[in-house]
UniProtKB/TrEMBL annotation:
Region annotation (Disordered) ranges: 362-381
Compositionally biased region (Pro residues): 365-375
Protein name: HEAT repeat domain-containing protein
Originating species: Nonomuraea purpurea
Domain of life: Bacteria
Length: 534
């Protein structure tokens, strides 16, 4: 955390939609109050308990299957040690491995989702939360069969609802009960699958998570994918990310595991930012999840997360959530925007404009001395298209002339006045040959800077406008964005960028077109670049 920020700017506060899918951890963010559907997926809230009658329901289920249980326990091929555990449990012993063995036998006979949940609730009601956690860990190491009882060397998927429910109850239980659960679970970590289950249930034991990260599930299908998701929900330090060396992949996003992203942020805090942004750069994330994903990045209390979001400001949802982050972290916003504005980054112009807008809205914040503005040119020196009468459309806040880069007339000593700048922005919204007169009268670099600043604010109209306002550097900057657009499935935007580069028409822009025609990210883009070449 950054000690030069106010305390509120170093705190992760998740929104309710993000907290709704959270897998809670002890001492972490509280989940949203779960509804009926949330509880059906294992969601719990502080103060939740298990119905005491669950013990009788589980006992009845075991009794109904007593004949099948006995047949499996008596089978010659059943593992003697597991059979001994099961018989000890049936005789009343405090034996989580035996409880897991009985649950496994009945689960295969019933073949339904409710069976493991019935036993889990029964264990909690009759034997306590620590016992239930140990039994779930043991269950992961038992082979699934209707005929015999055997240990399992590979990973077995344990009911996700039962695991999530027990994890939540452990997160909110009294300290003594939690300590007792951790102590008992230490004896149930003898295999890889048990270690993964235990770390998911009590992720506060970072040393245990270390071991899991050093020996993670290797593939992304079946039970390995299941344990990969549980391990993402267990990480709690940057060291865990280093040990894993993983990136989020498309298989990490589905309707039942999206909450893992907020859970990772709860555990890792700002350290999760590069992992999330890397996925945003590479993966075609389903649109409803994409908005929550961008929101999550914007909530991370760190300079790095803020800067990464700023650098992607033209993307869908990025603008609204960066503006929200500026209000949430006002001091951080000044700090990061000032640094980026003073750099040679492609985001420098955007950062400078946002900084001016931010300081205008928050005059109480200390900020850098503004760069001196070039004096306005007299009306008679302006191109007629910027002074003739016309109805200027309503412009967004970022199009305020005080926020945008100044456009200089050729010679550099004078700039467009505010009214002329507004008129220029209005013309840029529907770019046509009228902008040619502006390009002839104005300094090409400062005109391109204005166009780039407008483009980075993410409005669709600004991309075609760059063809009339941009220069060679604009062409290079646009070309650098094209591979990412194609990778994320926004090829239409990439084709519009090719058209804009062709419209720029400078020698450097034409070189960029030739390069795209030869080395573009895919065949369709290469063809588009070749066709656009004059």
């Amino acid at each position: 955390m950054d000690d030069h920020f106010p305390p509120a700017e170093d705190v992760l506060v998740l929104s309710e939609p993000l907290r709704r899918d959270l897998h809670p951890r002890r001492g972490g963010v509280l989940p949203a109050e779960p509804g009926v559907s949330d509880r059906a997926l294992g969601g719990v809230a502080p103060g939740d308990t298990v119905d005491p009658g669950a013990a009788d329901v589980a006992a009845k289920l075991a009794e109904e299957n007593r004949g099948h249980i006995e047949a499996v326990l008596s089978a010659a091929v059943s593992d003697p040690a597991l059979v001994a555990h099961a018989r000890a449990y049936l005789s009343g012993a405090d034996d989580p491995a035996g409880a897991a063995a009985i649950a496994s036998i009945v689960d295969r006979a019933q073949n339904g989702n409710e069976t493991p949940r019935t036993f889990t609730n029964g264990w909690i009601a009759s034997r306590g939360l620590a016992f239930a956690a140990c039994a779930l860990a043991e269950l992961s190491g038992i082979a699934s069969s209707t005929e015999d009882l055997r240990p399992l060397d590979s990973l077995r998927q344990v009911d996700s609802v039962s695991l999530r429910r027990v994890r939540g109850l452990l997160a909110f239980c009294p300290e003594e009960e939690y300590r007792r659960a951790v102590e008992r679970l230490a004896a149930h970590r003898g295999t890889r699958s048990r270690r993964l289950v235990v770390s998911y249930l009590v992720p506060t034991r970072h040393d245990w998570v270390d071991e899991c990260c050093a020996d993670p599930p290797s593939a992304e299908w079946g039970s390995n994918a299941f344990y990969r998701e549980r391990l993402w929900a267990s990480v709690g330090t940057p060291r865990h990310l280093e040990l894993l060396g993983w990136r989020l992949e498309e298989s990490d996003f589905d309707a039942f595991t999206f909450g893992m992203r907020a859970t990772m942020a709860d555990g890792l805090g700002p350290a999760v930012a590069p992992v999330l942004v890397d996925a945003w750069d590479r993966i075609r994330i389903y649109k409803p999840w994409r908005e929550r994903f961008v929101e999550l990045i914007s909530l991370l209390p760190s300079d790095e997360a803020f800067k990464l979001l700023l650098e992607r400001y033209e993307r869908e949802f990025a603008r609204e959530y960066l503006l929200a982050a500026m209000e949430r972290f006002p001091v951080r916003a000044v700090r990061v925007l000032s640094t980026v504005a003073a750099s040679d980054s492609t985001s420098a112009l955007l950062a400078a404009g946002l900084l001016r807008m931010h300081l205008k809205a928050h005059p109480e914040l200390p900020g850098p001395d503004p760069a001196p503005r070039v004096p306005d040119a007299p009306g008679e020196d302006l191109p007629a298209v910027l002074t003739e009468p016309g109805r200027a459309p309503r412009l967004p806040a970022y199009a305020d002339p005080d926020v945008l880069p100044q456009v200089l007339l050729k010679g550099g000593g004078r700039a467009l006045p505010a009214a002329a700048t507004r008129r220029l922005v209005a013309l840029a919204k529907k770019p046509d040959e009228r902008l040619d007169a502006v390009r002839d009268a104005c300094d090409r670099r400062s005109l391109a800077d204005l166009g780039w600043a407008l483009f980075l604010h993410g409005d669709a109209w600004a991309l075609p406008a760059l063809g009339r306002l941009g220069d060679g550097r604009t062409a290079r900057d646009l070309a650098a964005l094209i591979p990412g657009w194609v990778a994320r499935g926004t090829r239409a935007r990439a084709v519009k960028a090719v058209d804009a580069i062709a419209r720029i028409g400078t020698a450097e822009a034409l070189e960029v077109l030739d390069e795209l025609a030869e080395t573009g990210p895919d065949h369709a883009l290469r063809d588009a670049a070749a066709r656009a070449r004059p």
